[in-house]
Amino acid sequence: MTTDRNISTIPSSFVYEDLLSQVKTIQVYIVKTKNVLDNRSKNERRKRHQLKSRSLIFIDPYGNKIVDKIMDHEMINDVIKKFKKTYVPKYLQKWIKIGTKKDNIISSLNNCQLRSTVSHYANNYQFIAYSEVIVWLGCYKNLPSHRCILRVLLTGNMEKIKMQINQIGKFTSIELKSCTLKPETKPNEKDWIEGTILETEDTIMSRQLYEDNCVIMAKITQKQVYDHLLFFL
Length: 233
Known about the structure:
Layout lengths: L11 H39 L2 E7 L5 E7 L4 H12 L9 E6 L2 E4 L2 H5 L9 E14 L7 E7 L5 H9 L6 E8 L8 H6 L1 E2 L16 E8 L3 H5 L4
Parallel strand pairs: 1-5, 5-9
Antiparallel strand pairs: 1-2, 3-4, 3-5, 5-6, 7-8, 7-9
């Protein structure tokens, strides 16, 4: 029969020393882990510092200015895709393009520019969101109408559209209407009569003139207007 006297007991001093040893081991492990994480963080900060970047300015479809800091090695095409996905409403993305604007003239980006890296552009270089609208110029009587494409801001009003048209030729007067055409068709006198009048304060966005098959009809009056329209033949 086993008695209490036969049960061996572990000295309390041994238990305490063993526990203390385990605590010290854990503390050493924590310190080593912290050092590893600190060194990793320092290396990542050093790498980020070594990678050059610059600020680019984007004007969204509503005219808001957005400044983004972007790494020099990124491709402009990728940067533009990110911008459109983040700042252009989904319902507009189909019609929005990104270009540049200088002296009130909007220019598109060619393939070479799209394939270039951010490093090719100066700090605070500005890009702008724009759309393209089709304008049919004519008298809508005997002379045929002629098609041109204008790059426009969605916030631009009809006064600015007239200014762009006048860069093609100095016309005595310009009346603007809009209509929806079937693909590969030209507006005629009936389309002009039934078209929607575009007022001066109307904008590309308010009238949704950027949408497919929606066109602007410009009725122009001037002597020998046909000479100016030969440009489109």
